[in-house]
Amino acid sequence: MSDIDRRHLKTVLEAALLTSQEPLSVAQLKQLFGVPPEGGELISVLEELQRDWDGRGVELVRLANGWRFRARLDMQPYLERLKPEKPPRYSRAVMETLAIIAYKQPVTRGDIEEIRGVTVSSAIIQTLKERGWIDVVGHREVPGRPELLATTKDFLADLGLASLKDLPPLAELGTLVLPDAQETA
Question: Distance (Å, rounded) from C-alpha 152 to C-alpha 154?
Answer without folding.
Answer: 5
